[in-house]
Amino acid sequence: MLSVERSDLINIYQEAVRRNIIIENHNRKFKSLKEICELCGYPKPYPEQEKFFEFVLQDGVLELLGCRGVGKTVFTTIIASVYLIYNYDQSVIIFTQGRDRALQLCKEISFCLGKLGIKKVKDTGQSIRTNTKTGKEDSLFATTINSTSKRGQHPDKIFMDDPQTVDNISARDMERIHNNYQEILALCKNIVVIGQPIRSLDLYDTLRSKVKTYEVPWGRIPELDHDLDALRAAGMPEAKIAANYFLDISQDVTMPFQLIKHITDYPNQESVAFLDPSIKTGGDYTAITCATEWFAGMAFVGDMWQKSWDKCCDEILGLCISYRVKILIVETNVAGDVATTMLSDLLRPHGIKVVGRHTKTNKLARIMAAGAKAEKLFASKLSSPLYLGNIENFQDGVKHDDAPDSLASLLEYLNIITIKDDLWG
């Protein structure tokens, strides 16, 4: 005997009620995905497209990740919006990156609603209102993710169509898009984020472990698969193929320290340390890295504080003693010789030599050179979480890069890396 869960029966009942209400109030016959596609001139959906179409109709915050060419925008942002507006008179907002794309999506949805016989009392090119829509919300509103007009609106469904693209993947862009997402969460409880991961810690990557996610990698719809061999022959890097077609960003080179290894403790042997001092409390961080040879690479441990170096003297002394530091190098670019002199007086009684160093190489080049050696770097878990996070999450454009800079500067001082060459080859 077929067993049916009570929740399934409730869903079936609610679906039937919704259909009957639409038929009774608006004299419309319910239209399925396939019927909408046929009437609007779209090809018949493949089984996989039917699956992710059904997925985005669910309640809650959802994420749909798909490789290029599988029809994410067509079968979710466009047809799912038409489906919800036609069958249930729901209000939908679409957020996307550019205004032109928002207008294009609105125009296509308006066209489809017209094909289904829907009459519109409003169609501005950015918003649509059907003649049966009630309440203050329009049937559809399409805008950019940065739009301030999103405030105060409370639709039934939101589609975030490609909110992050290759044109906005700097650290500042990523922070802005994350903030926009948080604002959008306040508008509606039913949100679908649609796209493909680009780099570590972008919006797609962040949501992957937090919300229900449906993934459509290359190979799921063979009829639509791009020729990857042709793309390789044309010079597309493997890392880009992995991200665009297999939704794999593990080869992301924009975060150079992701491949560092971790060790529980720190070797009980002599070390050398590098201090990147801040001269202002509440601004940049004062960061220190201690390191020692470890197998074929370097083990390191460190800490950082959001205060000027002279307010961290006790912490610096304690860390140097704990990890058997024999030489502390202090960057003099900002703090001058004052920090070197004062710290020398403090550390000399403990047998620790302090030397000043004026760094002349480009900071980003220095950090990236250190990141290229990530597989030979062993980060001790005795480091502060703030320090480790600052290193592991480093990417060009981050607000604070003091910890990776102290690590890179130390490796440069030891001649393990240079901008043009390095010791480990």
CATH architecture term of the largest domain: 3-Layer(aba) Sandwich
Low-confidence stretches: 17-25, 421-425
Identify the CATH class of the largest domain. Answer: Alpha Beta
Report on the biggest sheet: 8 strands, mixed
Please estimate the helix content: 25-40%
- How many domains is the backbone divided into? 2
| Strand line-up of the largest beta sheet | 3-4-5-2-6-7-1-8
What is the quaternary state of this protein? Answer: single chain
Which overall shape is indicated by the principal axes computed on the Cα atoms?
A: elongated
Structural class: alpha/beta
What does this structure look like?
The chain is an alpha/beta fold. The protein has two domains: 8-246, Rossmann fold; 261-413, DNA-packaging terminase, C-terminal nuclease domain (Nucleotidyltransferase, domain 5), CATH 3.30.420.320. The chain is 38% helix and 19% strand. The chain contains 14 helices and 15 strands. It has helices at residues 6-26, 33-40, 47-56, 72-88, 99-115, 171-185, 203-208, 228-233, 238-246, 313-322, 336-347, 363-371, 385-392, 402-413; strands at 61-66, 92-96, 120-123, 127-130, 140-144, 157-161, 191-195, 212-216, 261-263, 271-276, 286-294, 297-305, 325-331, 353-357, 377-380. Strands 3-4-5-2-6-7-1-8 form an eight-stranded mixed β-sheet, with helices on both faces. A seven-stranded mixed β-sheet has the order 9-15-12-11-10-13-14. α3 crosses α4 (72-88) and α12 crosses α14. The radius of gyration is 28 Å and the shape is elongated. It starts with 5 loop residues before the first helix and ends in a 12-residue tail after the last helix. Mean pLDDT is 89; it is low at 17-25 and 421-425.
